Amino acid sequence: MKWQMAKSKWSRCSLREIGIPASDVAKQIGTSGQIVFLFFCALILFGCAKNVGPSGLGKVVGAITDSQTQKPIGGASITYLGNVMKFATSNSDGTYGITIPTGWQELNFAKDGYQAKAVKVNVIGEAAVTLNVELTPNDVTPKAARVTVSPTSVTLKIGQKQKFEIKAYDKDNSAITEFTVTTFIDPASLGSLSNDGTFTAKEAGEGTLTIKVGNVSAKATIIVN
Fold first, then answer.
1. pTM of the model
2. In 3D, which of 153, 80, 66 has the Cα closest to residue 113?
3. Which of these, 114, 126, 116, 129, lies nearest to 78 by C-alpha position?
């Protein structure tokens, strides 16, 4: 008797499907033979089950770059913390690939010197999903694209005080919470400015308060009577 395994994937196997009538088995072999035969069949069935491809999985691919320089980040870790944990590492050119279950999943991206990031992605089994990620370096102060000072004009008497409110915004017009301010009063004899932005009038005249954050600035007019 010649045994042949089909090359295509089987999702179901039986003695009938592989051409072995059960009646012939009973007639041709005894009890001990049946045990050996059934063990052999079990191995065949196990092979059939093993040939069934994995289902419910999809691949996510993409590139990881530095949010400041746009340069690729190699050696970054990509982690899936689902029922079965999956790990991957980005290549020297920043590219990566990881196979995880289909549906909405969360991937965690991390690299020494960068802020970790968690991103949700909808994984489709039939085709790879592209997910490019930018990581922000640690301790990076956003660059100011605009700065404001309020009020923009004030009239005071000698000895009076006025507090100025200074705000800075990045290129996306989002407020920057921490920034360094440089101030200029022209003429300098007009008054002084404390660390909290309070101006004290000292001499009669008209002048300008200039507020500078990085490469951007704002001005306020000060008149002292």
1. 0.43
2. 66
3. 116
